[in-house]
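User: Teach me something about this protein's shape.
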Amino acid sequence: MRRNKRKTDLTGYVYIAPICLVVLLMSVVPIFISLYYSFTNFDGVRAPVFTGWDNYAKLIRDPVLRASMINTLIYTVVTVPVQTVLALLLAFWLSTFRQGRWSQFIRGTLFVPVIASSMVAGIIWRAFMGPTGLINEALGLLSIPAVTFLDINHALMSACIVTVWRNLGYFMVIYFAAILDIPKSLYESADVEGCSFGQKLVYITIPLLRASTFLIVILGTIWSFQAFDLVFSLTQGGPGFSTTTMVMTIYNTSFKQFNLGYASAQAYVLLIIIVLISFVQTKVLNRSGDGSI
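Assistant: First, the predicted structure itself:
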């Protein structure tokens, strides 16, 4: 019987071996290869030439990378709080209907942008926000001056608006599911006491959604630092470098300048930032006492 049990255990390892091999080859190995490339001068054609810390020293003096980091930081600081607050308010409002038809319809409508392609969404919004786009056409009918959504002064904020529109449904669903887990008796007691909508939100809902809020904030922050496809299709990183994000800079360095060694160094800077954010997420969620949604 002991031999059969050992054979069964080994059979399990045989089944998971292929997927483990795929993960190793497609994820783990490239990480270490790119780490080596970050210390080299490599264009993807000729053999890499080891240059030590030159790429990392160059990062400090790179004005484009510095601008992209500032853009990414502004993008994160704007989108994360706005989409978190809006998702919470929407989820709480929809929870008052519980499983009503209107609640299901609004949740389904808000979730459509989540499942849509980011590239397609960016292209559509670019057409909407252009100088002769649908939004300015509508403003013209109302005798309101056209708005230059995608110029150098407004393009980054326009990207933030589109990002909030796309992420809102996902975070709203997380909040909505968490709110449904809150005992209805708490809200019924609050109704008996004559509490308003705002009082129930502040004193009951928000404290009990602490873990979900931390999760949503950290996820939103990580996604913002990884922003590429939506912003790229909306603005191409311009005008100038006004909407160039860190991932977009890595893309340009890799596939336009063919400087894969320097791009690897840039990617590792981004990786360090994301790892630090993940570390903060773990600490904060553990401190909250419950890491579950």
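Now, about its shape. The chain has a mean pLDDT of 85. Strands lie at 40-41, 49-50. If you'd like, I can walk through any region in more detail.
User: That's plenty for now, thanks!
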